[in-house]
Amino acid sequence: MVIGDYLARRALYSPNQAAIVDAGKDPVLRLTYFAFNERANRLANWLKSEIGAGYKDRIAVLARDGIEHLDLFFACSKLGAIHTALNWRLHWKETVRILQQTTPKLLVYDAEFEGSIDEIRRFTGNVRQVSMADLEKAMADSPTEPVTYPALEPEDIAALIFTGGTTGLPKAAQVSHRMIAWNTLNTIIHDLHHDDVYLNVFPLFHTGGLFVYTLPNVILGGKTVLVREFDPEKILSTLEEEGVTIFAGVPTMYQMLTQAPNWADADLSALRFCTSGGAPLPVQLVEQYTREKGVKFKQGFGMTEFGPGVFALAPEDAVRKAGSIGHPNFYVQAAIMDEDGRLLGPNEVGELVLKGPSFSSGYFNDPDASEDVVDELGFFHTGDLAKYDEDQYFYIVDRKKDMFISGGENVYPAEIEKEIYDFPGVLQCAVVGLPDEHWGEVGHACVVLKAGYERDEAGVLSFLQDRLARFKVPKGVTFMEALPISGAGKILKRELINQLTTKEI
């Protein structure tokens, strides 16, 4: 067994322990650690013999959540290959660009995405493709002999997790086996037990889905429950039926659960705590869960490049320190820095910078971007404006890079603006995030047209829907005579937000 063969180690320690419940399958699939490891060995043997996959090869997957994601992750770890999960919410044209960037040796896909695969195939003919149904059949005939890559080192890459595209193409953060180990240790210190039952509702192509609790829970020997998608009524029934002890979601999800028809009758007494991230959790929602279900909330803050567990806010601070992301986790060093590289004190606003062993190994095939985000002191620059108080509780004040979060998804305006400029007649444009009761924030486009062109909001939105994932498409367009510009020639997006929210435009 080598450092990356997580399942073989866990199967050795607790072979008969319940490992995975795939509640998205009909019938529900239940696996012990022994059976789970056998599946990964079968797949690793098939990848090695039939695909020729090995050290550093990328293996991509396009599918909703399910056991197949974890089969591939652990099989890749045994081979020293790199798990590359694709965001199924992206437009197929975006997926093509990512595949061209990462050049995987194999793309595994669910039949649901056959239409997109037909389009993708025209531009990535050199990437071998196999459906999940065919892969399952192939695995059944594959041997279960252990597969390892003995030369694997902690700094070798286990997975690529994609950030949002600030320049039109998402960057692939390289998640090393070293990063996984330190993130797991941070999570265990953050109160994960050997007998925990975790229900994952985050997409497994996100750091939240694969690394918040799913992988640490497997490494520690707990039971992890998977669902195909977030269905509030089904989630509540699954929490009860499986005796789930840990659940994590974004505020929108927690709000949707309270509106489900079975909310009043749902028994959530097995939950030790819930974790919320992605945006501040409203105090009213914390109080409702405590009052009606006796649920305690932890809140946190993470990011693809530094792991999902960067900050944590304890349940007892949910109201007292409302809006805070909490303290840095145990092996994370956090500071606030000004534009001149000076570290700031309490209640001074500057950029949040991080240092520690859970940092990723830069961006795949992008050394310039990898260097740009780390300074000479070794601090990773998050691009978030933040502060901390006298008690060392941190608060996010603004996003330096204009990113906003819609329904738990990071949305980068620059990527959308690039597409808007391709629409006929656009002279200038800016996309900003506006508050939304349901999604937290939604995009809004401000557009200045060239002379002689007619305003066409429906046309702009339709144009973007054919190029971008739905969650990236703005919910509205405002046409303006001019955009507010600073003395340095930069668009003043904060002023745009103020105008839009106060209806001054």
What can you see in these coordinates?
The chain has 505 residues and is α/β, with parallel strands linked by helices. It contains 16 helices and 24 strands. The strands form five sheets. It has a nine-stranded mixed β-sheet. Strand 13 and strand 14 form a beta hairpin. Helix 2 packs across helix 6. The radius of gyration is 23 Å and the shape is globular. The termini are far apart. The model has no long low-confidence stretch (mean pLDDT 93).
List the helices and strands and how they pair.
Elements: H1 6-13, E1 18-22, E2 29-32, H2 33-51, E3 58-62, H3 67-79, E4 82-85, H4 92-102, E5 106-109, H5 114-121, E6 128-131, H6 132-140, E7 157-162, E8 172-176, H7 177-189, E9 197-200, H8 207-211, H9 214-220, E10 223-226, H10 232-241, E11 246-249, H11 251-258, E12 273-276, H12 283-293, E13 297-303, E14 307-313, E15 327-328, E16 333-337, E17 350-355, H13 367-372, E18 380-388, E19 394-399, E20 404-406, E21 409-411, H14 413-420, E22 426-436, E23 440-449, H15 457-465, E24 476-479, H16 493-501
Helix pairs in contact: 1-2, 2-3, 2-6, 4-5, 7-9, 10-11
